[in-house]
Amino acid sequence: MPLYEYSCEKCSRKVELLIRGDEKPECPHCHSTKLTKLLSVVSGHVAGGGTSSAAESCGRPQCGMGGCAGLG
């Protein structure tokens, strides 16, 4: 099931919500349905039980978990 990130227009909080099918998202803090869907950075599980995001590493083994700072 996809998780979506929203910003509430009423209370300005950012929340992640699991939305199924035709469900209308609702802010869990103020219960407003006036939410704006945000773009999120993709992340996933990596060996060792941690997580990695697309912004941290290009996925090449020589880059490691620190990104591509050493490549040019």
Structure characterization notes:
The chain is mainly β. It is built from no helices and five strands. The strands form two sheets. The chain has a three-stranded antiparallel beta sheet, with no helix packed on it. The chain has a two-stranded antiparallel ribbon with strand order 4-5. The chain is elongated and about 40 Å long. The chain starts with a strand and ends in a 19-residue tail after the last strand. 4% of the residues are buried.
First-to-last CA distance = 38 Å
Q: What is the alpha-carbon Rg in Å?
A: 17 Å
The largest sheet, given as strand count, sense and whether it forms a barrel, is: 3 strands, antiparallel
The helix-and-strand class reads mainly beta
Strand content: 25-35%
Query: What's the mean pLDDT score?
Result: 76
Order of secondary-structure elements? EEEEE
- Based on CA inertia axes, which overall geometry fits? elongated
Ordered list of secondary-structure elements with their pairings:
Blueprint: E1 3-8, E2 14-18, E3 35-38, E4 43-45, E5 51-53
